[in-house]
Design goal:
The complex is a heterodimer. Chain A is α+β, with helices and mostly antiparallel strands. Chain A has four helices and eleven strands. Chain B starts with a helix and ends in a 25-residue tail after the last helix. Chain B has a domain of 232 residues. The chains are: A alpha+beta, B alpha/beta.
């Protein structure tokens, strides 16, 4: 059976990268004593699909992943969510577990966009920040270089704005960026365009929007 | 001193600037974080290399578990930061801190270093420096942590005597508890640091170097190392755990990839083979085995606790474990279908049966590694690892036949009296083994020959022997490189500089401490990393301190020479070692001591322990008669 798991990634796991996270999931499922499905061959790989790689240093509030268990569909051992949570390491919180149709397309191909929230570790002036955001949104094109390729960052920004202050007295930046294969906006690039150094921020991906979540699925 | 919160705030701005920041944050599954304010004794366990290597150290895992089981003590961890992290820590004023609670190491009561090998010494100094703790014992004050160290390298503690307050010699499970108890009593008493050290010296197995004085002969060799106070025993006898305690099963599961991601269960401690070059085989006697039931139960619990995909059954020679087939069979059944790899890290060629290979194949074990060490009959007799070519060829043929395409063979060059013909034989044997593989696998068959260079380690029958000179080593290595050009053979070797550095540090006396200090001060660290080790810095450090490195490595030894480590006893008689050395020169082999006891010295000293643990768990003969001797250290002579 194929399960779709929504989870958050926080604490020390912020500094665990994508590949290591897949390994953490494999071990979590083994500790929960659930029969994870492995590929055939000399080096069997567990069937785990993370919807979208979360860059090192980011927190994740609602990440999405599919895993396959060697259990007949519909015979989900209850309570799966508790079993997995008990086996999960600190920093991994399981928010939701649902069984999905086994024949759905690969999860990675289903992501459309992602929401991010950025906490600024240094004091920032709200008015000045608003002005930079407006200027950035007003641009038709934002040509940037990444790994030797030129691309238009502006086209990948679906929305960008400020959130209410959260006690610290500092505004937070919120953005929705395209997260499609070959068209993925990176929040640190947006921050750089705004002149904010990456290391003076804490970035959280708050939501992954799947194509099926959109009002008019393509 | 910075608070954990201050350290965390500074870290957040730095971690994304360094490689693999997951090394520096802790937060792994199965760590123990206790209420700092409620626990009287705080111990930090340190491995002086990076997290990726240190987190897999089995000794520290055991101690972490043992200490944290006490209500009145806590154990946290720290490792050496890699160069990039060290640079940002120094420039941002972040002291070395523990991964569990992020307290500065200076806030702990006891810092315990694991020193399994000697090339960690400069990193040890660097970690103390990063923690803001005075490097020299003599400079530490009442508020500084107690610095202790243990591990195999500590069987010659002298090169580190100036930096470590107290060494734990031998097995750590019980001794660490004694040290914590004494520390607690001392803290309550309000006595001076000097009194703490004297109190620690009274614990069996503890060596407090500042309570001893070394005297030298005119020729530079040691005349004596004498205790200065009555609490300090003239000879420090190692601690030995008569019955292995239940294995640790709550291993920390790293959040990043490390060197070994696996459950380790020690199936047996010690080795009965008596290879003359092998320090571990001498200092870990007697051989004690765990039962199959205990190992299996521990493995199951540990896999449940960790979810690791590999289970390593550890010992110096796993295939010599009396119940190896039963163990591998039982584990194979228990974990069938769970995608668990079983590895036996050290296999003896003569005890790897065809049956064992089949069992391991079913369990998807990684490649096969075998260690013939030498390739001529003469050399094999000298080192007392007598494995005939036929046996090696037969075993490797069976391995290839079962579909493992790569076999790794370990050899050593530089054994006593070795000639180029002996080295040529290594190349010839490699070719013959590969030819066996080609018969069954064709071009797919591969061979990896790992050829290290022999270092005459303290407490071994070869401690009287000189190390090959760099020229001799290079000549032997060039021969192998010339001979083993086959594309299917991968040859790896140790740089002569690495061998010499390790040899100086292994065999050094107290005067080496200032060389270590000078080398560190001039930038040496990560000496175990070939790309970091600075040979010239070490040579300069010897020169600066007026010492000749060749004195420690290339000098023939008198048979009555007093070694710098003679006041540290592993319970094996020096006389036994010397007789064994003499037999080696005559080409005489000693068989496995399970078949015949050669009276190495273990039994008389640990007779009471043997009597209290009758039966087959120990591989020494049973002791029936009452103790005729008190448990006392071996005389140095």
């Amino acid at each position: 059976m194929r399960l779709r798991i929504t989870f958050s990634k926080s604490g020390a796991l912020r500094y665990t990268g994508h590949l290591d996270l897949a390994k953490i999931w494999e071990r979590t499922v083994r500790r929960a004593d659930l029969p994870l499905v492995y590929s055939q061959g000399f080096h069997p790989q567990p069937k785990i699909q993370l919807a979208s790689a979360l860059p090192l240093g980011f927190l994740g509030r609602a990440e999405v992943m599919d895993i396959w268990l060697d259990i007949q569909p519909g015979n989900s051992p209850l309570p799966l969510k508790n079993l997995l949570q008990q086996a999960a390491p600190p920093g991994l919180t399981i928010l939701d577990v649902v069984e999905v149709e086994a024949r759905l397309p690969a999860l990675q191909t289903q992501v459309d966009s992602a929401d991010y929230e950025v906490i600024l570790l240094d004091p920032a002036d709200r008015l000045a920040l608003s002005k930079s955001l407006i200027a950035l949104l007003a641009a038709d094109r934002l040509e940037r270089q990444r790994r030797g390729k030129t691309y238009d960052l502006r086209a990948l920004i679906q929305s960008l704005g400020l959130l209410d202050e959260d006690g610290s007295g500092n505004p937070r930046i919120a953005m929705r960026l395209s997260t499609r294969e070959g068209a993925t906006g990176r929040p640190e690039e947006v921050l750089e365009a705004l002149g904010i150094p990456f290391e003076s921020t804490r970035i959280e991906r708050t939501r992954l929007i799947l194509k099926t979540d959109l009002p008019n699925p393509p | 001193m910075l608070t954990p919160e201050q350290i965390e705030a500074r870290l957040e701005r730095l971690l994304l600037k360094v490689q693999k920041p997951g090394r520096y944050v802790g937060g792994e599954l199965n760590i123990v974080v206790k209420d700092w304010t409620q626990v009287p004794t705080k111990v930090a366990l340190l491995f002086p290399d990076i997290y990726d290597i240190g987190v897999s150290n089995v000794g520290l895992k055991i101690l972490y578990d043992q200490i944290n089981q006490r209500e009145d003590a806590l154990a946290e961890r720290a490792y050496a930061p890699w160069l990039d992290m060290e640079a940002v820590m120094r420039s941002s004023g972040i002291p070395l801190y523990s991964l569990e609670s992020h307290h500065s190491l200076a806030a702990f009561d006891i810092l315990g270093f694991s020193l399994p090998y000697e090339t960690l010494y400069t990193n040890t100094l660097n970690m103390l420096d990063l923690a803001g703790i005075p490097l020299h014992t003599s400079e530490r004050g009442p508020s500084d942590p107690l610095i202790i160290a243990g591990g195999h390298a500590c069987f010659n503690p002298e090169p580190m005597h100036a930096f470590v307050d107290a060494f734990a010699i031998g097995e750590g499970e019980e001794i660490i508890q004694d040290i914590i108890n004494r520390h607690q009593a001392w803290k309550k008493s309000g006595a001076t640091r000097a009194e703490l050290l004297r109190s620690l010296a009274g614990i069996s197995g503890v060596y407090v170097p500042s309570l001893y004085e070394a005297h030298y002969q005119e020729d530079g060799t040691v005349a004596s190392v004498e205790a200065r106070v009555p609490e300090a025993p003239p000879i420090v006898l190692k601690r030995m755990v008569a019955k292995l305690p239940p294995p640790t099963t709550r291993f920390i599961v790293p959040n990043i990839e490390t060197v070994h991601n696996r459950v380790t269960v020690e199936v047996m401690r010690g080795c009965t083979r008596g290879c003359r070059f092998c320090q571990a085989g001498m200092i870990t006697r007697p051989v004690r085995e765990r039962s199959v039931a205990e190992v299996v139960a521990a493995a199951e619990e540990a896999v449940r606790n960790t979810g690791f995909e590999e289970l390593a059954l550890l010992s110096l020679s796993s295939s010599d474990y009396s119940h190896i087939l039963e163990l591998v069979t039982t584990i194979g059944e228990k974990f069938s279908g769970r995608h668990l790899t079983i590895s036996l890290p050290s296999l003896r060629i003569e005890s790897v049966s065809v049956e064992l290979m089949d069992k391991l194949r079913d369990r998807r074990s990684f490649g096969f590694t075998l260690a013939p060490e030498a390739a001529t009959e003469r050399m094999r007799r000298i080192i007392n690892k007598f494995i005939p070519d036929d046996q090696i060829l037969e075993t490797t043929r069976e391995i290839y036949r079962r579909g493992w395409p790569t076999i790794k063979l370990y050899f050593m060059i530089g054994h006593p009296s070795e000639t180029l013909e002996d080295v040529q034989a290594i190349a010839d044997l490699c070719k013959r083994v590969l030819a066996e593989g080609r018969k069954v696998l064709g071009g797919k068959a591969k061979l990896h020959a790992g050829v290290s260079t022999f270092i005459p380690k303290p407490h071994t029958p070869f401690q009287w022997v000189a190390v090959d000179t760099p020229e001799q080593i290079r000549a032997k290595q060039s021969l192998l490189m010339r001979e083993l050009r086959d594309g299917s053979i991968k040859l790896s070797w140790t740089q002569p500089e690495d061998t010499l550095l390790e040899a100086w540090l292994s065999r050094g006396d107290r005067r080496l401490a200032e060389v270590v200090y000078t080398a560190w001060k001039n930038g040496s660290k990560f000496d175990a990393w070939q790309d970091q080790r600075r040979y010239e810095t070490w040579l300069a450090a010897f020169a600066e301190n007026g010492l000749d490195p060749a004195f420690y490595t290339h000098r023939p030894r008198r048979m009555d020479e007093i070694f710098p480590w003679d006041h540290i006893s592993d319970a094996v008689h020096k006389k036994f070692l010397f007789n064994d050395f003499r037999q080696s020169l005559e080409g005489q082999i000693r068989i496995d001591c399970r078949e015949q006891c050669f009276a190495c010295g273990i039994l008389p000293i640990f007779a009471n322990d043997r009597r209290a643990n009758p039966g087959t768990s120990w591989k020494c003969p049973e002791v029936k008669s009452p103790a005729t001797r008190k448990r006392e250290p071996v005389p140095a002579g």
